[in-house]
Amino acid sequence: MNLASARKIFRFPCGNNGLPHLRKGAMTLTTVFLFFVFTTLGLGLLTCSRITLELSAAGKNSRILEYAAESGVKAGFQNLIGRLSPNFMTITETELSDLRDQTEKGETAAAERLAGAPFPLIQKGKCGRADWESQAHLALRQYEDQKQWFRTVVDVSLNGEGGIKNFRQKKSTILEARLDLFTGHVPTSLYPFLIDTGLSSKEQAEFYKKNSIKLHSLQPALPSPVPVFTQGDHLSPDASPLLSRVLKIDIFKPQDLTPARLRAVLGLPPSEEPVPEGVYLIRDGSGLGGIFVQGDLEELILAVDDGAQVIAFSSDAGRWMVRFHPVIQHTVFQTPEGFEEFDSSPRGVIVINGSVCSLSAGRLNLSGEIVPSPDEETPSVLSGLQLSIVCSDSITISSHLTHQGVTWKDGIPFVKNPRTRLSLFSAGCDFLDGSEKEGKITIGETGQDDIKIQAHLTSSGQGITAEGDKRDLYLAGSLQAKKLNLEGNNLELFYDRRLPGTFSDPGTTPLTAVPVIRLSGLRILAWKTS
After folding, report:
1. CA pseudo-torsion sign 383, 386, 391, 395
2. 16-20, 149-153, 223-227, 416-420: lowest mean pLDDT where?
Protein backbone atom coordinates (compact mmCIF):
# COMPACT_ATOMS: atom_id res chain seq x y z
CA MET A 1 0.00 0.00 0.00
CA ASN A 2 1.43 3.24 -1.04
CA LEU A 3 1.38 6.47 0.96
CA ALA A 4 -1.46 8.01 -0.93
CA SER A 5 -3.65 4.98 -0.28
CA ALA A 6 -2.71 5.02 3.40
CA ARG A 7 -3.82 8.63 3.74
CA LYS A 8 -7.16 7.70 2.36
CA ILE A 9 -7.59 4.79 4.78
CA PHE A 10 -6.34 6.44 8.10
CA ARG A 11 -8.29 9.47 9.42
CA PHE A 12 -5.47 10.83 11.54
CA PRO A 13 -2.33 12.18 10.04
CA CYS A 14 0.73 10.12 10.51
CA GLY A 15 4.13 11.12 11.47
CA ASN A 16 7.42 10.01 10.07
CA ASN A 17 7.06 6.66 11.81
CA GLY A 18 3.61 6.08 10.47
CA LEU A 19 1.73 6.67 13.87
CA PRO A 20 -1.01 9.27 14.34
CA HIS A 21 -0.26 12.58 16.10
CA LEU A 22 -1.69 12.57 19.78
CA ARG A 23 -2.51 15.58 22.25
CA LYS A 24 -0.16 14.70 25.06
CA GLY A 25 -0.82 16.07 28.78
CA ALA A 26 -4.46 17.25 28.39
CA MET A 27 -5.84 14.98 31.09
CA THR A 28 -2.97 15.84 33.39
CA LEU A 29 -3.61 19.53 32.99
CA THR A 30 -7.32 19.06 33.62
CA THR A 31 -6.64 16.99 36.71
CA VAL A 32 -4.15 19.52 38.05
CA PHE A 33 -6.59 22.37 37.44
CA LEU A 34 -9.44 20.60 39.23
CA PHE A 35 -7.12 19.66 42.10
CA PHE A 36 -6.09 23.29 42.38
CA VAL A 37 -9.68 24.50 42.38
CA PHE A 38 -10.86 22.04 45.03
CA THR A 39 -7.72 22.56 47.11
CA THR A 40 -8.32 26.32 47.03
CA LEU A 41 -11.95 25.84 48.00
CA GLY A 42 -10.98 23.45 50.80
CA LEU A 43 -8.29 25.77 52.13
CA GLY A 44 -10.75 28.67 51.91
CA LEU A 45 -13.37 26.73 53.83
CA LEU A 46 -10.78 25.68 56.39
CA THR A 47 -9.67 29.29 56.75
CA CYS A 48 -13.28 30.47 57.09
CA SER A 49 -13.95 27.78 59.67
CA ARG A 50 -10.84 28.76 61.60
CA ILE A 51 -11.83 32.45 61.49
CA THR A 52 -15.39 31.58 62.55
CA LEU A 53 -14.09 29.50 65.43
CA GLU A 54 -11.73 32.27 66.47
CA LEU A 55 -14.51 34.86 66.23
CA SER A 56 -16.83 32.60 68.21
CA ALA A 57 -14.15 32.11 70.85
CA ALA A 58 -13.47 35.85 70.90
CA GLY A 59 -17.21 36.57 71.21
CA LYS A 60 -17.48 34.02 73.97
CA ASN A 61 -14.54 35.55 75.81
CA SER A 62 -15.98 39.04 75.28
CA ARG A 63 -19.30 37.99 76.80
CA ILE A 64 -17.53 36.29 79.68
CA LEU A 65 -15.50 39.48 80.26
CA GLU A 66 -18.67 41.56 80.14
CA TYR A 67 -20.46 39.24 82.55
CA ALA A 68 -17.44 39.23 84.85
CA ALA A 69 -17.23 43.06 84.83
CA GLU A 70 -20.96 43.35 85.53
CA SER A 71 -20.63 40.78 88.30
CA GLY A 72 -17.89 42.93 89.82
CA VAL A 73 -20.14 46.02 89.78
CA LYS A 74 -23.13 44.12 91.17
CA ALA A 75 -21.07 42.50 93.90
CA GLY A 76 -19.50 45.84 94.79
CA PHE A 77 -22.89 47.57 94.85
CA GLN A 78 -24.41 44.88 97.04
CA ASN A 79 -21.42 45.19 99.36
CA LEU A 80 -21.92 48.96 99.53
CA ILE A 81 -25.66 48.63 100.19
CA GLY A 82 -25.03 46.05 102.90
CA ARG A 83 -22.53 48.33 104.63
CA LEU A 84 -24.86 51.34 104.49
CA SER A 85 -27.84 49.40 105.86
CA PRO A 86 -29.93 50.14 107.98
CA ASN A 87 -29.30 53.67 106.66
CA PHE A 88 -28.56 55.33 110.00
CA MET A 89 -26.30 55.04 113.01
CA THR A 90 -25.98 56.85 116.34
CA ILE A 91 -22.74 58.72 117.04
CA THR A 92 -21.33 60.71 119.94
CA GLU A 93 -20.96 64.48 120.17
CA THR A 94 -17.18 64.08 119.89
CA GLU A 95 -17.54 62.00 116.73
CA LEU A 96 -19.91 64.63 115.33
CA SER A 97 -17.34 67.35 115.87
CA ASP A 98 -14.59 65.27 114.26
CA LEU A 99 -16.76 64.40 111.26
CA ARG A 100 -17.64 68.07 110.77
CA ASP A 101 -13.96 69.07 110.81
CA GLN A 102 -13.01 66.35 108.32
CA THR A 103 -15.90 67.18 106.00
CA GLU A 104 -14.90 70.86 105.97
CA LYS A 105 -11.54 69.67 104.62
CA GLY A 106 -13.25 67.97 101.69
CA GLU A 107 -13.22 64.43 103.06
CA THR A 108 -16.09 61.93 102.92
CA ALA A 109 -15.80 61.03 106.59
CA ALA A 110 -19.55 60.69 107.30
CA ALA A 111 -20.11 58.18 104.47
CA GLU A 112 -17.04 56.16 105.48
CA ARG A 113 -18.18 56.15 109.13
CA LEU A 114 -21.63 54.88 108.14
CA ALA A 115 -20.09 52.22 105.88
CA GLY A 116 -17.74 51.14 108.64
CA ALA A 117 -14.67 51.03 106.38
CA PRO A 118 -12.29 53.41 104.63
CA PHE A 119 -12.63 53.92 100.89
CA PRO A 120 -11.92 52.73 98.24
CA LEU A 121 -13.83 49.55 99.04
CA ILE A 122 -12.19 46.66 97.17
CA GLN A 123 -13.87 43.34 96.58
CA LYS A 124 -12.72 40.34 94.50
CA GLY A 125 -14.37 37.15 93.29
CA LYS A 126 -14.16 34.39 90.68
CA CYS A 127 -16.27 31.73 89.01
CA GLY A 128 -14.66 29.09 86.79
CA ARG A 129 -12.17 30.75 84.43
CA ALA A 130 -13.61 34.23 85.06
CA ASP A 131 -12.60 36.57 87.88
CA TRP A 132 -13.58 40.11 88.80
CA GLU A 133 -12.64 42.99 91.04
CA SER A 134 -14.63 46.04 92.13
CA GLN A 135 -13.45 49.33 93.63
CA ALA A 136 -15.82 51.92 95.12
CA HIS A 137 -14.51 55.49 95.33
CA LEU A 138 -16.14 58.48 97.02
CA ALA A 139 -15.92 62.19 96.21
CA LEU A 140 -17.52 65.05 98.16
CA ARG A 141 -19.85 66.98 95.88
CA GLN A 142 -21.72 69.31 98.27
CA TYR A 143 -21.43 70.38 101.90
CA GLU A 144 -24.10 72.37 103.75
CA ASP A 145 -23.67 73.30 107.43
CA GLN A 146 -26.75 74.11 109.53
CA LYS A 147 -25.21 74.28 113.05
CA GLN A 148 -27.20 71.42 114.58
CA TRP A 149 -26.56 69.19 111.57
CA PHE A 150 -24.79 69.23 108.26
CA ARG A 151 -25.67 67.73 104.92
CA THR A 152 -23.26 66.10 102.47
CA VAL A 153 -23.85 64.97 98.90
CA VAL A 154 -21.30 62.33 97.92
CA ASP A 155 -20.57 60.97 94.44
CA VAL A 156 -19.90 57.23 94.24
CA SER A 157 -17.83 55.75 91.40
CA LEU A 158 -17.91 51.95 91.42
CA ASN A 159 -15.49 50.38 88.91
CA GLY A 160 -15.90 46.69 88.09
CA GLU A 161 -13.17 44.91 86.08
CA GLY A 162 -13.53 41.39 84.63
CA GLY A 163 -10.83 39.02 83.40
CA ILE A 164 -10.28 35.44 82.18
CA LYS A 165 -7.51 33.10 83.20
CA ASN A 166 -4.63 33.04 80.66
CA PHE A 167 -6.29 35.83 78.66
CA ARG A 168 -4.65 39.22 78.39
CA GLN A 169 -7.72 41.34 77.65
CA LYS A 170 -9.88 42.80 80.44
CA LYS A 171 -13.15 44.70 80.47
CA SER A 172 -14.34 47.49 82.77
CA THR A 173 -17.77 48.73 83.81
CA ILE A 174 -18.42 51.88 85.86
CA LEU A 175 -21.51 52.54 87.98
CA GLU A 176 -22.07 56.15 89.06
CA ALA A 177 -24.33 56.87 92.04
CA ARG A 178 -24.97 59.64 94.56
CA LEU A 179 -25.47 59.54 98.34
CA ASP A 180 -27.40 62.13 100.36
CA LEU A 181 -26.42 62.12 104.04
CA PHE A 182 -27.44 64.17 107.07
CA THR A 183 -25.16 64.15 110.11
CA GLY A 184 -25.84 65.52 113.60
CA HIS A 185 -29.11 66.31 115.34
CA VAL A 186 -31.06 65.87 112.12
CA PRO A 187 -34.74 66.67 111.35
CA THR A 188 -36.94 63.82 112.53
CA SER A 189 -38.92 63.99 109.28
CA LEU A 190 -35.97 62.27 107.56
CA TYR A 191 -37.38 59.06 109.07
CA PRO A 192 -40.53 58.07 107.12
CA PHE A 193 -41.80 55.84 109.95
CA LEU A 194 -40.08 55.79 113.35
CA ILE A 195 -41.18 54.13 116.60
CA ASP A 196 -38.86 55.20 119.41
CA THR A 197 -39.70 52.79 122.24
CA GLY A 198 -36.99 50.13 122.15
CA LEU A 199 -39.25 47.25 121.06
CA SER A 200 -37.81 43.74 120.91
CA SER A 201 -38.21 41.57 117.79
CA LYS A 202 -41.20 39.83 119.36
CA GLU A 203 -42.80 43.14 120.33
CA GLN A 204 -42.24 44.47 116.81
CA ALA A 205 -44.11 41.48 115.37
CA GLU A 206 -46.98 42.11 117.79
CA PHE A 207 -46.93 45.78 116.80
CA TYR A 208 -47.57 44.86 113.17
CA LYS A 209 -50.40 42.52 114.15
CA LYS A 210 -52.05 45.24 116.23
CA ASN A 211 -51.75 48.00 113.63
CA SER A 212 -52.64 47.85 109.94
CA ILE A 213 -49.91 49.88 108.22
CA LYS A 214 -48.81 50.21 104.59
CA LEU A 215 -45.80 52.28 103.57
CA HIS A 216 -45.37 53.67 100.06
CA SER A 217 -43.00 55.97 98.19
CA LEU A 218 -44.47 58.83 96.19
CA GLN A 219 -41.85 58.07 93.53
CA PRO A 220 -43.02 54.75 91.95
CA ALA A 221 -39.53 53.86 90.70
CA LEU A 222 -38.14 53.89 94.25
CA PRO A 223 -38.66 51.16 96.87
CA SER A 224 -41.11 51.61 99.71
CA PRO A 225 -39.67 53.10 102.93
CA VAL A 226 -38.65 50.76 105.73
CA PRO A 227 -39.95 51.16 109.32
CA VAL A 228 -37.30 52.07 111.89
CA PHE A 229 -37.46 50.99 115.54
CA THR A 230 -35.04 52.79 117.84
CA GLN A 231 -34.17 52.38 121.51
CA GLY A 232 -36.02 55.34 122.96
CA ASP A 233 -33.19 57.81 122.36
CA HIS A 234 -34.27 59.63 119.17
CA LEU A 235 -37.26 61.73 120.27
CA SER A 236 -36.93 64.39 122.96
CA PRO A 237 -39.44 66.83 124.51
CA ASP A 238 -36.83 69.59 124.33
CA ALA A 239 -38.03 72.21 121.84
CA SER A 240 -35.35 74.81 122.62
CA PRO A 241 -34.10 75.14 118.99
CA LEU A 242 -37.64 75.83 117.80
CA LEU A 243 -38.25 78.33 120.59
CA SER A 244 -35.05 80.10 119.62
CA ARG A 245 -36.30 80.30 116.05
CA VAL A 246 -39.67 81.73 117.04
CA LEU A 247 -38.53 84.16 119.71
CA LYS A 248 -35.34 85.21 117.86
CA ILE A 249 -33.20 84.63 120.97
CA ASP A 250 -30.63 82.02 121.96
CA ILE A 251 -32.03 79.25 124.17
CA PHE A 252 -29.71 76.37 124.93
CA LYS A 253 -31.92 74.63 127.50
CA PRO A 254 -35.52 75.07 128.74
CA GLN A 255 -34.41 76.74 131.97
CA ASP A 256 -33.02 79.66 129.96
CA LEU A 257 -36.55 80.90 129.20
CA THR A 258 -37.66 82.63 132.39
CA PRO A 259 -41.00 84.52 132.64
CA ALA A 260 -39.12 87.83 132.85
CA ARG A 261 -37.07 87.11 129.73
CA LEU A 262 -40.13 85.89 127.83
CA ARG A 263 -42.11 89.01 128.77
CA ALA A 264 -39.29 91.16 127.43
CA VAL A 265 -39.30 89.29 124.11
CA LEU A 266 -43.10 89.55 123.83
CA GLY A 267 -43.05 93.28 124.51
CA LEU A 268 -44.87 93.03 127.86
CA PRO A 269 -44.13 95.21 130.90
CA PRO A 270 -41.23 93.88 133.02
CA SER A 271 -42.40 91.54 135.74
CA GLU A 272 -41.80 88.13 137.26
CA GLU A 273 -45.48 87.27 136.79
CA PRO A 274 -46.43 84.53 134.31
CA VAL A 275 -47.14 85.58 130.74
CA PRO A 276 -50.90 86.23 130.22
CA GLU A 277 -52.73 83.80 127.96
CA GLY A 278 -52.96 84.92 124.36
CA VAL A 279 -51.35 84.98 120.92
CA TYR A 280 -48.17 86.99 120.40
CA LEU A 281 -46.57 87.89 117.07
CA ILE A 282 -42.84 88.28 117.69
CA ARG A 283 -41.29 91.39 116.17
CA ASP A 284 -38.12 93.47 116.54
CA GLY A 285 -36.08 95.91 114.51
CA SER A 286 -35.09 93.28 111.95
CA GLY A 287 -38.67 92.18 111.18
CA LEU A 288 -41.11 89.53 112.31
CA GLY A 289 -40.32 86.31 114.11
CA GLY A 290 -42.68 83.42 114.72
CA ILE A 291 -45.95 83.18 116.64
CA PHE A 292 -46.05 82.34 120.35
CA VAL A 293 -49.24 81.18 122.08
CA GLN A 294 -49.57 80.97 125.85
CA GLY A 295 -52.40 78.73 127.04
CA ASP A 296 -54.73 76.14 125.55
CA LEU A 297 -56.47 76.72 122.23
CA GLU A 298 -60.02 75.62 121.58
CA GLU A 299 -59.54 75.94 117.83
CA LEU A 300 -56.62 76.42 115.49
CA ILE A 301 -57.78 76.86 111.89
CA LEU A 302 -55.54 76.90 108.79
CA ALA A 303 -56.91 78.37 105.56
CA VAL A 304 -55.74 79.63 102.18
CA ASP A 305 -57.35 82.73 100.70
CA ASP A 306 -56.36 84.69 97.60
CA GLY A 307 -52.64 83.88 97.76
CA ALA A 308 -52.44 84.37 101.52
CA GLN A 309 -52.02 81.99 104.45
CA VAL A 310 -54.60 82.57 107.14
CA ILE A 311 -54.27 81.22 110.69
CA ALA A 312 -57.10 81.71 113.21
CA PHE A 313 -56.74 81.15 116.97
CA SER A 314 -59.61 80.75 119.46
CA SER A 315 -59.35 80.38 123.22
CA ASP A 316 -61.10 81.50 126.39
CA ALA A 317 -59.04 84.68 126.22
CA GLY A 318 -60.37 85.74 122.79
CA ARG A 319 -59.84 85.34 119.04
CA TRP A 320 -56.79 86.21 116.94
CA MET A 321 -56.04 85.93 113.25
CA VAL A 322 -52.80 86.21 111.27
CA ARG A 323 -53.02 86.74 107.51
CA PHE A 324 -49.80 87.03 105.50
CA HIS A 325 -48.70 87.05 101.84
CA PRO A 326 -45.20 85.54 101.53
CA VAL A 327 -44.83 86.83 97.95
CA ILE A 328 -45.64 90.50 98.56
CA GLN A 329 -44.36 90.43 102.17
CA HIS A 330 -47.43 91.79 103.87
CA THR A 331 -48.99 90.69 107.18
CA VAL A 332 -52.19 91.61 108.99
CA PHE A 333 -52.46 90.68 112.67
CA GLN A 334 -55.96 90.85 114.14
CA THR A 335 -56.23 90.86 117.94
CA PRO A 336 -59.11 91.49 120.38
CA GLU A 337 -57.78 95.07 120.64
CA GLY A 338 -57.60 95.78 116.88
CA PHE A 339 -55.45 95.36 113.74
CA GLU A 340 -51.73 95.68 113.04
CA GLU A 341 -50.04 95.63 109.62
CA PHE A 342 -46.42 94.78 108.73
CA ASP A 343 -44.39 94.91 105.52
CA SER A 344 -42.86 91.48 106.11
CA SER A 345 -43.94 87.89 106.73
CA PRO A 346 -43.59 85.93 109.98
CA ARG A 347 -41.40 82.88 110.27
CA GLY A 348 -43.30 79.69 109.63
CA VAL A 349 -43.22 78.42 113.22
CA ILE A 350 -46.08 78.50 115.74
CA VAL A 351 -45.16 77.57 119.32
CA ILE A 352 -48.09 76.80 121.64
CA ASN A 353 -47.39 76.39 125.33
CA GLY A 354 -50.55 74.41 125.88
CA SER A 355 -52.87 72.09 123.95
CA VAL A 356 -54.92 72.34 120.75
CA CYS A 357 -58.39 70.88 121.16
CA SER A 358 -59.18 71.12 117.43
CA LEU A 359 -56.81 71.62 114.50
CA SER A 360 -58.70 71.86 111.21
CA ALA A 361 -58.78 73.31 107.72
CA GLY A 362 -60.97 76.34 107.23
CA ARG A 363 -62.61 78.66 104.73
CA LEU A 364 -63.98 82.19 104.67
CA ASN A 365 -67.73 82.58 105.24
CA LEU A 366 -69.88 85.36 103.85
CA SER A 367 -69.01 87.70 106.72
CA GLY A 368 -65.26 87.25 106.12
CA GLU A 369 -64.59 85.08 109.14
CA ILE A 370 -62.55 81.87 109.09
CA VAL A 371 -64.71 78.88 110.00
CA PRO A 372 -63.81 75.16 110.14
CA SER A 373 -64.40 73.02 107.08
CA PRO A 374 -64.47 69.46 108.47
CA ASP A 375 -66.45 67.78 105.68
CA GLU A 376 -64.54 69.05 102.64
CA GLU A 377 -60.99 68.55 101.39
CA THR A 378 -60.25 72.25 101.67
CA PRO A 379 -56.56 73.21 101.15
CA SER A 380 -55.13 74.44 104.43
CA VAL A 381 -51.44 75.20 103.63
CA LEU A 382 -50.37 77.70 100.99
CA SER A 383 -48.31 76.26 98.14
CA GLY A 384 -44.58 76.72 98.79
CA LEU A 385 -45.03 77.51 102.51
CA GLN A 386 -43.15 75.62 105.22
CA LEU A 387 -45.20 75.73 108.41
CA SER A 388 -44.44 74.06 111.75
CA ILE A 389 -46.81 73.84 114.73
CA VAL A 390 -45.01 73.01 117.99
CA CYS A 391 -47.21 72.21 120.96
CA SER A 392 -46.18 71.45 124.55
CA ASP A 393 -49.31 69.35 125.14
CA SER A 394 -51.72 67.39 122.92
CA ILE A 395 -53.01 68.14 119.41
CA THR A 396 -56.31 66.82 118.03
CA ILE A 397 -56.75 66.82 114.23
CA SER A 398 -60.40 67.42 113.34
CA SER A 399 -60.45 67.51 109.53
CA HIS A 400 -58.49 66.85 106.36
CA LEU A 401 -55.19 68.74 106.27
CA THR A 402 -53.99 69.11 102.67
CA HIS A 403 -51.71 71.42 100.71
CA GLN A 404 -52.80 73.85 98.04
CA GLY A 405 -52.39 72.42 94.53
CA VAL A 406 -52.30 68.75 95.59
CA THR A 407 -54.71 66.37 93.91
CA TRP A 408 -55.80 63.19 95.72
CA LYS A 409 -56.98 60.32 93.53
CA ASP A 410 -57.94 56.93 94.98
CA GLY A 411 -56.20 57.86 98.20
CA ILE A 412 -52.91 58.74 96.47
CA PRO A 413 -51.60 62.34 96.55
CA PHE A 414 -50.09 63.84 93.41
CA VAL A 415 -47.62 66.42 94.70
CA LYS A 416 -46.47 69.19 92.36
CA ASN A 417 -44.53 71.38 94.80
CA PRO A 418 -42.46 69.31 97.26
CA ARG A 419 -41.31 72.49 99.04
CA THR A 420 -44.69 72.85 100.77
CA ARG A 421 -44.50 71.37 104.25
CA LEU A 422 -46.63 71.14 107.38
CA SER A 423 -45.04 69.75 110.55
CA LEU A 424 -46.88 68.94 113.79
CA PHE A 425 -44.79 68.36 116.91
CA SER A 426 -46.30 67.43 120.28
CA ALA A 427 -43.44 67.71 122.80
CA GLY A 428 -45.04 66.49 126.07
CA CYS A 429 -43.25 69.09 128.19
CA ASP A 430 -44.17 72.59 129.33
CA PHE A 431 -41.87 75.10 127.63
CA LEU A 432 -41.61 77.39 130.67
CA ASP A 433 -41.48 75.27 133.81
CA GLY A 434 -40.51 71.91 132.28
CA SER A 435 -43.44 70.00 133.77
CA GLU A 436 -44.55 66.84 132.00
CA LYS A 437 -47.56 67.01 129.68
CA GLU A 438 -49.55 64.37 127.81
CA GLY A 439 -47.90 65.21 124.49
CA LYS A 440 -50.16 63.20 122.19
CA ILE A 441 -51.37 63.66 118.60
CA THR A 442 -54.91 62.37 118.04
CA ILE A 443 -56.56 61.91 114.67
CA GLY A 444 -60.07 62.69 115.78
CA GLU A 445 -63.40 61.24 114.75
CA THR A 446 -64.69 63.40 111.87
CA GLY A 447 -67.67 61.27 110.87
CA GLN A 448 -66.03 60.37 107.56
CA ASP A 449 -64.82 56.98 106.37
CA ASP A 450 -61.42 58.36 105.43
CA ILE A 451 -59.21 61.30 106.33
CA LYS A 452 -56.31 62.76 104.35
CA ILE A 453 -53.43 64.41 106.19
CA GLN A 454 -50.44 65.92 104.44
CA ALA A 455 -48.02 66.56 107.29
CA HIS A 456 -45.06 65.28 109.29
CA LEU A 457 -46.33 64.04 112.66
CA THR A 458 -43.93 63.86 115.61
CA SER A 459 -44.89 63.01 119.18
CA SER A 460 -42.32 62.59 121.94
CA GLY A 461 -45.01 62.22 124.61
CA GLN A 462 -47.71 59.56 124.71
CA GLY A 463 -47.64 58.88 121.00
CA ILE A 464 -50.13 59.04 118.15
CA THR A 465 -53.64 57.59 118.28
CA ALA A 466 -56.62 57.44 115.93
CA GLU A 467 -60.25 57.56 116.97
CA GLY A 468 -63.09 55.71 115.24
CA ASP A 469 -63.03 52.22 113.80
CA LYS A 470 -62.14 50.74 110.39
CA ARG A 471 -61.42 54.11 108.84
CA ASP A 472 -58.83 54.64 106.11
CA LEU A 473 -56.18 57.14 107.20
CA TYR A 474 -54.00 58.54 104.40
CA LEU A 475 -50.84 60.31 105.55
CA ALA A 476 -48.62 62.03 102.99
CA GLY A 477 -45.51 62.87 104.97
CA SER A 478 -43.87 61.00 107.83
CA LEU A 479 -44.57 59.72 111.33
CA GLN A 480 -42.34 59.57 114.41
CA ALA A 481 -43.70 58.64 117.83
CA LYS A 482 -43.00 56.86 121.08
CA LYS A 483 -46.20 54.86 120.62
CA LEU A 484 -48.75 54.27 117.87
CA ASN A 485 -52.28 52.97 118.40
CA LEU A 486 -54.58 52.99 115.38
CA GLU A 487 -57.52 51.49 117.31
CA GLY A 488 -58.63 49.27 114.41
CA ASN A 489 -58.13 51.90 111.68
CA ASN A 490 -55.99 51.43 108.55
CA LEU A 491 -53.00 53.68 107.87
CA GLU A 492 -51.39 54.23 104.47
CA LEU A 493 -48.29 56.42 104.57
CA PHE A 494 -46.82 58.06 101.45
CA TYR A 495 -43.28 59.37 101.82
CA ASP A 496 -41.84 61.94 99.43
CA ARG A 497 -38.12 61.26 99.00
CA ARG A 498 -37.64 64.73 97.58
CA LEU A 499 -38.03 66.01 101.15
CA PRO A 500 -34.27 66.26 102.01
CA GLY A 501 -33.82 69.00 99.44
CA THR A 502 -36.56 71.21 100.92
CA PHE A 503 -34.98 72.38 104.18
CA SER A 504 -34.58 75.95 102.96
CA ASP A 505 -35.53 77.30 106.40
CA PRO A 506 -33.56 75.31 109.02
CA GLY A 507 -34.74 75.41 112.60
CA THR A 508 -38.42 74.94 111.80
CA THR A 509 -38.71 71.19 112.47
CA PRO A 510 -37.97 69.00 115.53
CA LEU A 511 -34.54 67.38 115.66
CA THR A 512 -33.31 64.04 116.95
CA ALA A 513 -32.20 63.99 120.58
CA VAL A 514 -28.91 62.23 119.74
CA PRO A 515 -26.53 62.90 116.87
CA VAL A 516 -26.86 60.40 114.03
CA ILE A 517 -25.66 59.77 110.49
CA ARG A 518 -28.75 59.35 108.35
CA LEU A 519 -28.64 58.20 104.71
CA SER A 520 -31.67 59.85 103.19
CA GLY A 521 -31.12 58.95 99.54
CA LEU A 522 -29.14 56.70 97.20
CA ARG A 523 -29.61 57.41 93.51
CA ILE A 524 -28.03 55.59 90.55
CA LEU A 525 -26.98 58.07 87.86
CA ALA A 526 -25.36 56.00 85.07
CA TRP A 527 -23.87 52.63 84.13
CA LYS A 528 -21.04 52.86 81.60
CA THR A 529 -19.10 50.08 79.85
CA SER A 530 -15.62 50.56 78.44
Report:
1. positive
2. 16-20
